[in-house]
Amino acid sequence: MKISARNILKGKVTEIVKGATTSHVRIDIGGGVIVTSSITNEAVADLALENGRQAYAVIKASDVMVGID
């Protein structure tokens, strides 16, 4: 995966809280640090996110996106 964002934090999904249209995804990046991202429920399904899955918090400007290999 190549992207333009330079802030890519590797971690594991610890929690997914689904709402009506969006989910809050919590990623443990180590050292007791948790990054939370708000993404669509469709994105959670497309990425097959689940607790324990390795994922990346990709930070560009003020947005946090989630990516996987």
Automatic annotation (TrEMBL):
Question: Superkingdom of the source?
Answer: Bacteria
One GO term of the biological process aspect: molybdate ion transport
Key word Acyltransferase present: no
In terms of Pfam families, this protein maps to: TOBE
Instruction: Name the UniProt key words of this record, in alphabetical order.
Output: Molybdenum
| InterPro entries named among the record's database cross-references | Mo/tungstate-bd_C_term_dom (IPR008995), Mop_domain (IPR004606), Transp-assoc_OB_typ1 (IPR005116)
What PROSITE patterns does this protein map onto? MOP
* Limits of the Mop domain: 2-68
NCBIfam families xref list: Mop
Q: What is this protein's name?
A: Putative molybdenum-pterin-binding protein
Q: Provide the organism lineage as a comma list.
A: Bacteria, Pseudomonadati, Pseudomonadota, Alphaproteobacteria, Hyphomicrobiales
